[in-house]
Amino acid sequence: MEILETARAFDLPTEPVSFRECRVGHINSTFFLFDGAGRGYVLQKINTHVFRDPEGLMENVFAVTDHIRGVLARTGGDAERGTLRFRKTADGRLFFTDPEGRAWRLYDMIDGAYSMESADPATFMHVGTAFGRFQRQLADFDASSLRETIPFFHDTVRRFGTFRKSLGADPAGRAASVGAEIDFAMAHEGICSYVTSRLDAGLIPSRVTHNDTKLNNILMDEKTRMPLCVIDLDTIMPGSVLYDFGDAIRFGASSAAEDETDLSKVFFRHDMFESFTRGFLRALGGELCSEELASLPMGALVITFETGLRFLTDHIDGDVYFRTSYPGQNLDRARNQFRLVADLESRMPLFLDTVEKIAKE
Predict the structure, then answer these.
(1) In this structure, what DSSP letter does residue 274 have?
(2) Neighbour count for residue 24 (Cβ, 10 Å)
(3) Distance (Å, rounded) from C-alpha 59 to C-alpha 54?
(4) Is the pLDDT of residue 127 over 80?
(5) Which DSSP helix (H) or strand (E) runs through 22?
(6) Across the strands, what pairs with 20?
Protein backbone atom coordinates (compact mmCIF):
# COMPACT_ATOMS: atom_id res chain seq x y z
CA MET A 1 0.00 0.00 0.00
CA GLU A 2 1.28 3.48 -0.80
CA ILE A 3 2.50 5.56 2.12
CA LEU A 4 0.28 8.55 1.32
CA GLU A 5 -2.71 6.27 0.90
CA THR A 6 -2.05 4.80 4.33
CA ALA A 7 -1.92 8.30 5.81
CA ARG A 8 -5.39 8.99 4.42
CA ALA A 9 -6.76 6.39 6.84
CA PHE A 10 -6.10 8.83 9.71
CA ASP A 11 -8.16 11.79 10.86
CA LEU A 12 -5.86 14.67 9.90
CA PRO A 13 -6.47 18.43 9.64
CA THR A 14 -4.48 18.57 6.39
CA GLU A 15 -3.62 15.98 3.76
CA PRO A 16 0.03 14.98 3.28
CA VAL A 17 1.30 15.33 -0.27
CA SER A 18 4.90 14.10 0.06
CA PHE A 19 7.03 11.87 2.27
CA ARG A 20 10.53 10.57 2.91
CA GLU A 21 11.73 7.52 4.82
CA CYS A 22 13.61 7.88 8.08
CA ARG A 23 16.65 5.60 8.15
CA VAL A 24 17.27 5.94 11.89
CA GLY A 25 15.90 3.28 14.24
CA HIS A 26 15.98 -0.49 14.33
CA ILE A 27 12.46 -1.60 15.27
CA ASN A 28 9.65 0.26 13.50
CA SER A 29 9.59 1.56 9.92
CA THR A 30 9.22 5.35 9.98
CA PHE A 31 8.19 7.90 7.35
CA PHE A 32 8.07 11.71 7.52
CA LEU A 33 5.02 13.15 5.75
CA PHE A 34 4.37 16.77 4.74
CA ASP A 35 1.35 18.71 3.55
CA GLY A 36 1.44 21.50 0.97
CA ALA A 37 2.30 24.11 3.63
CA GLY A 38 5.15 22.04 5.08
CA ARG A 39 3.27 20.80 8.15
CA GLY A 40 4.71 17.43 9.16
CA TYR A 41 3.51 14.09 10.46
CA VAL A 42 5.27 10.90 11.43
CA LEU A 43 3.86 7.63 10.11
CA GLN A 44 5.18 4.38 11.55
CA LYS A 45 4.64 0.73 10.77
CA ILE A 46 4.68 -1.02 14.14
CA ASN A 47 6.96 -4.05 14.27
CA THR A 48 4.48 -6.67 15.46
CA HIS A 49 7.19 -9.31 15.72
CA VAL A 50 8.59 -7.29 18.65
CA PHE A 51 5.32 -5.73 19.81
CA ARG A 52 2.79 -8.52 19.50
CA ASP A 53 -0.08 -6.52 21.02
CA PRO A 54 -0.35 -3.28 19.00
CA GLU A 55 -3.76 -2.58 20.55
CA GLY A 56 -2.31 -2.63 24.05
CA LEU A 57 0.73 -0.65 22.96
CA MET A 58 -1.37 2.13 21.49
CA GLU A 59 -3.73 2.17 24.46
CA ASN A 60 -0.65 2.83 26.63
CA VAL A 61 0.65 5.56 24.33
CA PHE A 62 -2.65 7.43 24.06
CA ALA A 63 -3.31 7.20 27.79
CA VAL A 64 0.14 8.45 28.81
CA THR A 65 0.36 11.29 26.28
CA ASP A 66 -3.18 12.44 27.07
CA HIS A 67 -2.29 12.47 30.78
CA ILE A 68 0.89 14.47 30.21
CA ARG A 69 -0.98 16.92 27.97
CA GLY A 70 -3.47 17.46 30.79
CA VAL A 71 -0.65 18.08 33.28
CA LEU A 72 0.94 20.61 30.92
CA ALA A 73 -2.36 22.41 30.41
CA ARG A 74 -2.91 22.69 34.17
CA THR A 75 0.64 23.83 34.96
CA GLY A 76 1.13 26.31 32.14
CA GLY A 77 3.37 24.10 30.04
CA ASP A 78 3.41 23.74 26.27
CA ALA A 79 0.70 21.17 25.67
CA GLU A 80 1.42 21.09 21.92
CA ARG A 81 5.18 20.53 22.06
CA GLY A 82 5.58 19.01 25.52
CA THR A 83 4.41 15.56 24.47
CA LEU A 84 3.58 13.71 21.27
CA ARG A 85 0.09 14.02 19.77
CA PHE A 86 -1.05 10.76 18.21
CA ARG A 87 -3.89 10.76 15.69
CA LYS A 88 -6.74 8.28 15.59
CA THR A 89 -7.95 6.81 12.33
CA ALA A 90 -10.92 8.30 10.50
CA ASP A 91 -13.14 5.63 12.08
CA GLY A 92 -11.83 6.31 15.58
CA ARG A 93 -9.32 3.49 16.03
CA LEU A 94 -5.96 3.95 17.74
CA PHE A 95 -4.05 2.49 14.79
CA PHE A 96 -4.70 1.41 11.23
CA THR A 97 -4.52 -2.16 9.98
CA ASP A 98 -3.84 -2.34 6.24
CA PRO A 99 -5.09 -5.11 3.91
CA GLU A 100 -1.88 -7.06 4.51
CA GLY A 101 -2.53 -7.03 8.25
CA ARG A 102 0.25 -4.53 9.09
CA ALA A 103 -0.28 -2.07 11.95
CA TRP A 104 0.32 1.66 11.39
CA ARG A 105 0.17 4.68 13.70
CA LEU A 106 0.60 8.40 13.09
CA TYR A 107 1.51 11.44 15.19
CA ASP A 108 2.22 15.12 14.62
CA MET A 109 5.80 16.13 13.93
CA ILE A 110 7.13 18.66 16.45
CA ASP A 111 8.65 21.56 14.52
CA GLY A 112 11.94 23.11 15.55
CA ALA A 113 13.15 20.05 17.44
CA TYR A 114 16.13 17.74 17.23
CA SER A 115 17.56 14.70 19.02
CA MET A 116 21.16 13.93 20.01
CA GLU A 117 23.46 10.93 19.82
CA SER A 118 25.99 12.31 22.32
CA ALA A 119 26.13 15.03 24.95
CA ASP A 120 28.49 16.96 27.20
CA PRO A 121 27.83 17.10 30.96
CA ALA A 122 25.79 20.32 30.79
CA THR A 123 23.51 18.91 28.09
CA PHE A 124 23.26 15.55 29.84
CA MET A 125 21.87 17.38 32.86
CA HIS A 126 19.04 18.61 30.62
CA VAL A 127 18.45 15.00 29.52
CA GLY A 128 18.16 14.08 33.19
CA THR A 129 15.71 16.94 33.65
CA ALA A 130 13.57 15.62 30.79
CA PHE A 131 13.38 12.08 32.12
CA GLY A 132 12.84 13.30 35.69
CA ARG A 133 10.05 15.58 34.52
CA PHE A 134 8.52 12.67 32.61
CA GLN A 135 8.45 10.63 35.83
CA ARG A 136 6.93 13.49 37.82
CA GLN A 137 4.25 14.16 35.20
CA LEU A 138 3.17 10.53 35.52
CA ALA A 139 3.56 10.20 39.29
CA ASP A 140 -0.22 10.13 39.78
CA PHE A 141 -0.87 7.87 36.78
CA ASP A 142 -1.99 4.33 37.67
CA ALA A 143 0.89 2.22 36.39
CA SER A 144 -1.11 -0.98 36.86
CA SER A 145 -3.49 0.17 34.10
CA LEU A 146 -0.74 -0.15 31.49
CA ARG A 147 -0.24 -3.24 29.36
CA GLU A 148 3.14 -4.97 29.22
CA THR A 149 4.19 -4.39 25.60
CA ILE A 150 7.19 -6.71 26.05
CA PRO A 151 6.45 -8.99 29.01
CA PHE A 152 9.21 -9.30 31.64
CA PHE A 153 11.36 -6.80 29.70
CA HIS A 154 13.54 -5.82 32.69
CA ASP A 155 13.08 -9.00 34.73
CA THR A 156 16.80 -9.63 35.12
CA VAL A 157 16.19 -12.95 36.92
CA ARG A 158 14.32 -14.25 33.87
CA ARG A 159 17.04 -12.87 31.61
CA PHE A 160 19.55 -14.93 33.55
CA GLY A 161 17.36 -18.01 33.17
CA THR A 162 17.32 -17.44 29.41
CA PHE A 163 21.10 -17.14 29.47
CA ARG A 164 21.40 -20.49 31.27
CA LYS A 165 19.16 -22.17 28.71
CA SER A 166 21.20 -20.79 25.83
CA LEU A 167 24.38 -21.89 27.53
CA GLY A 168 23.04 -25.42 27.89
CA ALA A 169 21.86 -25.63 24.29
CA ASP A 170 24.88 -23.82 22.82
CA PRO A 171 23.20 -23.67 19.38
CA ALA A 172 26.11 -21.94 17.59
CA GLY A 173 28.88 -23.87 19.34
CA ARG A 174 30.38 -20.72 20.84
CA ALA A 175 30.19 -21.34 24.58
CA ALA A 176 33.64 -22.92 24.88
CA SER A 177 35.29 -19.78 23.49
CA VAL A 178 33.71 -17.36 25.96
CA GLY A 179 34.62 -18.93 29.26
CA ALA A 180 35.78 -15.70 30.91
CA GLU A 181 32.55 -13.91 30.04
CA ILE A 182 30.46 -16.84 31.27
CA ASP A 183 32.40 -16.88 34.54
CA PHE A 184 31.76 -13.14 34.98
CA ALA A 185 28.06 -13.60 34.39
CA MET A 186 27.83 -16.52 36.81
CA ALA A 187 29.65 -14.54 39.49
CA HIS A 188 27.05 -11.79 39.23
CA GLU A 189 23.85 -13.84 39.28
CA GLY A 190 23.16 -12.55 42.78
CA ILE A 191 22.49 -8.97 41.64
CA CYS A 192 19.78 -10.03 39.17
CA SER A 193 17.02 -9.94 41.79
CA TYR A 194 18.01 -6.58 43.29
CA VAL A 195 15.19 -4.56 41.69
CA THR A 196 12.53 -7.25 41.27
CA SER A 197 12.79 -8.39 44.89
CA ARG A 198 12.32 -4.82 46.13
CA LEU A 199 9.32 -4.32 43.87
CA ASP A 200 7.79 -7.61 45.05
CA ALA A 201 8.39 -6.72 48.71
CA GLY A 202 6.89 -3.24 48.29
CA LEU A 203 10.14 -1.55 49.31
CA ILE A 204 10.01 0.51 46.12
CA PRO A 205 6.81 1.48 44.26
CA SER A 206 5.78 0.39 40.81
CA ARG A 207 5.78 3.45 38.55
CA VAL A 208 5.23 4.26 34.90
CA THR A 209 8.60 3.60 33.29
CA HIS A 210 9.86 4.44 29.81
CA ASN A 211 12.34 1.53 29.69
CA ASP A 212 14.46 2.95 26.85
CA THR A 213 15.95 6.11 28.34
CA LYS A 214 18.71 6.74 25.82
CA LEU A 215 19.52 10.41 25.36
CA ASN A 216 18.40 10.25 21.72
CA ASN A 217 14.86 9.67 22.97
CA ILE A 218 14.63 13.30 24.06
CA LEU A 219 13.56 16.04 21.65
CA MET A 220 15.40 19.32 22.20
CA ASP A 221 14.26 22.80 21.15
CA GLU A 222 16.41 24.17 18.32
CA LYS A 223 16.22 27.72 19.65
CA THR A 224 16.57 27.28 23.41
CA ARG A 225 18.58 24.03 23.38
CA MET A 226 16.34 22.88 26.22
CA PRO A 227 14.39 19.59 26.36
CA LEU A 228 10.88 19.55 24.94
CA CYS A 229 9.57 16.05 25.44
CA VAL A 230 10.29 12.34 25.73
CA ILE A 231 9.67 10.22 22.62
CA ASP A 232 9.81 6.53 21.60
CA LEU A 233 7.05 5.47 23.98
CA ASP A 234 6.57 1.87 22.84
CA THR A 235 8.09 0.29 25.95
CA ILE A 236 6.13 2.33 28.49
CA MET A 237 5.11 -0.21 31.14
CA PRO A 238 4.82 -0.62 34.90
CA GLY A 239 8.25 -0.92 36.51
CA SER A 240 10.80 0.80 38.71
CA VAL A 241 12.39 4.21 38.38
CA LEU A 242 15.68 2.32 38.83
CA TYR A 243 15.22 0.89 35.33
CA ASP A 244 14.95 4.31 33.71
CA PHE A 245 17.74 5.90 35.72
CA GLY A 246 19.96 2.87 35.18
CA ASP A 247 19.52 2.67 31.42
CA ALA A 248 20.10 6.41 30.98
CA ILE A 249 23.38 6.15 32.89
CA ARG A 250 24.42 2.96 31.11
CA PHE A 251 24.03 4.59 27.72
CA GLY A 252 24.86 8.24 28.38
CA ALA A 253 27.58 8.12 31.04
CA SER A 254 29.79 5.52 29.39
CA SER A 255 33.14 6.85 28.23
CA ALA A 256 33.09 4.85 24.99
CA ALA A 257 30.88 3.40 22.29
CA GLU A 258 28.96 0.25 23.11
CA ASP A 259 31.22 -1.92 20.96
CA GLU A 260 34.58 -0.36 21.90
CA THR A 261 37.08 -3.22 22.04
CA ASP A 262 39.86 -1.41 23.92
CA LEU A 263 38.45 -1.95 27.39
CA SER A 264 40.98 0.41 28.93
CA LYS A 265 38.88 3.17 27.38
CA VAL A 266 35.64 1.92 28.92
CA PHE A 267 34.44 3.34 32.24
CA PHE A 268 31.62 5.35 33.74
CA ARG A 269 32.23 9.08 33.60
CA HIS A 270 31.53 10.48 37.03
CA ASP A 271 30.93 13.97 35.64
CA MET A 272 28.21 12.64 33.36
CA PHE A 273 26.66 10.60 36.18
CA GLU A 274 26.62 13.65 38.43
CA SER A 275 25.12 15.91 35.77
CA PHE A 276 22.32 13.53 34.84
CA THR A 277 21.52 12.77 38.48
CA ARG A 278 21.29 16.46 39.34
CA GLY A 279 18.88 17.18 36.47
CA PHE A 280 16.86 14.04 37.20
CA LEU A 281 16.41 14.62 40.93
CA ARG A 282 15.72 18.34 40.63
CA ALA A 283 12.97 17.68 38.10
CA LEU A 284 11.45 14.99 40.32
CA GLY A 285 11.23 17.45 43.20
CA GLY A 286 11.39 14.95 46.06
CA GLU A 287 9.07 12.41 44.44
CA LEU A 288 11.32 9.39 45.12
CA CYS A 289 11.25 7.45 48.36
CA SER A 290 14.43 6.94 50.40
CA GLU A 291 14.90 3.36 49.18
CA GLU A 292 14.72 4.48 45.55
CA LEU A 293 17.25 7.26 46.14
CA ALA A 294 19.69 4.96 47.86
CA SER A 295 19.33 2.37 45.08
CA LEU A 296 19.86 4.56 42.01
CA PRO A 297 23.51 3.53 41.42
CA MET A 298 22.52 -0.12 41.86
CA GLY A 299 19.87 0.45 39.20
CA ALA A 300 22.66 1.44 36.82
CA LEU A 301 24.66 -1.63 37.83
CA VAL A 302 21.77 -4.07 37.33
CA ILE A 303 20.66 -2.66 33.98
CA THR A 304 24.23 -2.56 32.66
CA PHE A 305 24.76 -6.17 33.71
CA GLU A 306 21.41 -7.18 32.21
CA THR A 307 22.35 -5.56 28.89
CA GLY A 308 25.72 -7.28 28.83
CA LEU A 309 24.04 -10.56 29.65
CA ARG A 310 21.63 -10.11 26.75
CA PHE A 311 24.52 -9.41 24.36
CA LEU A 312 26.38 -12.49 25.60
CA THR A 313 23.25 -14.63 25.29
CA ASP A 314 22.72 -13.49 21.71
CA HIS A 315 26.35 -14.22 20.85
CA ILE A 316 25.94 -17.75 22.20
CA ASP A 317 22.67 -18.13 20.28
CA GLY A 318 24.34 -17.12 17.00
CA ASP A 319 23.37 -13.41 16.80
CA VAL A 320 19.65 -13.90 16.27
CA TYR A 321 18.26 -10.84 18.09
CA PHE A 322 20.57 -7.83 18.01
CA ARG A 323 21.62 -6.48 14.65
CA THR A 324 25.36 -6.82 14.06
CA SER A 325 27.66 -5.28 11.47
CA TYR A 326 30.61 -7.65 11.91
CA PRO A 327 31.26 -11.13 13.38
CA GLY A 328 31.72 -11.08 17.13
CA GLN A 329 30.12 -7.67 17.67
CA ASN A 330 27.72 -8.97 20.31
CA LEU A 331 30.65 -10.45 22.22
CA ASP A 332 32.45 -7.10 22.03
CA ARG A 333 29.30 -5.43 23.34
CA ALA A 334 29.02 -7.93 26.20
CA ARG A 335 32.64 -7.43 27.22
CA ASN A 336 32.12 -3.68 27.07
CA GLN A 337 29.09 -3.78 29.37
CA PHE A 338 30.76 -6.16 31.80
CA ARG A 339 33.73 -3.78 31.98
CA LEU A 340 31.31 -1.01 32.95
CA VAL A 341 29.82 -3.26 35.63
CA ALA A 342 33.25 -3.93 37.10
CA ASP A 343 34.11 -0.23 37.03
CA LEU A 344 30.91 0.78 38.78
CA GLU A 345 31.38 -1.92 41.41
CA SER A 346 34.88 -0.69 42.16
CA ARG A 347 33.70 2.90 42.61
CA MET A 348 30.25 2.33 44.07
CA PRO A 349 30.89 4.43 47.24
CA LEU A 350 31.67 7.47 45.06
CA PHE A 351 28.44 7.16 43.11
CA LEU A 352 26.38 6.53 46.25
CA ASP A 353 27.87 9.63 47.88
CA THR A 354 27.10 11.65 44.76
CA VAL A 355 23.41 10.74 44.84
CA GLU A 356 23.22 11.50 48.57
CA LYS A 357 24.89 14.88 48.09
CA ILE A 358 22.60 15.91 45.21
CA ALA A 359 19.47 14.73 47.05
CA LYS A 360 20.29 17.18 49.86
CA GLU A 361 20.77 20.18 47.54
Answers:
(1) H
(2) 8
(3) 8
(4) yes
(5) strand 18-22
(6) 32
Domain covering 3-110 assigned CATH 3.30.200.20 in the classification: yes
Element containing residue 200 per DSSP (H, E): helix 194-201
Q: How far, in Å, CA of 281 to CA of 285, rounded? A: 6
Q: Which residues pair with 42 in a beta bridge?
A: 32, 107
pTM as predicted: 0.92
Angle at 187 between CA 178 and CA 318, to 5 degrees: 30
CA–CA separation, 208 and 136 (whole Å): 10
CATH of domain 121-359: 3.90.1200.10
Contact indicator for 228, 255 with CB cutoff of 8 Å = no
CA–CA dist 318, 129 (Å, integer): 39
For 270-292, b where at least 16 C-beta lie within 10 A, e where not — what string? Answer: eebbbbbbbbbbbbbeeebeeeb
Domains of the chain, by residue range, sit at 3-110, 121-359
Helix (H) or strand (E) holding 67, with range, is helix 54-75
The model's pLDDT over 327-360, given as tens digits with 9 standing for 90+, comes to 999 999 999 999 999 999 999 999 999 999 999 9
Contact 210, 127 (CB under 8 A): no
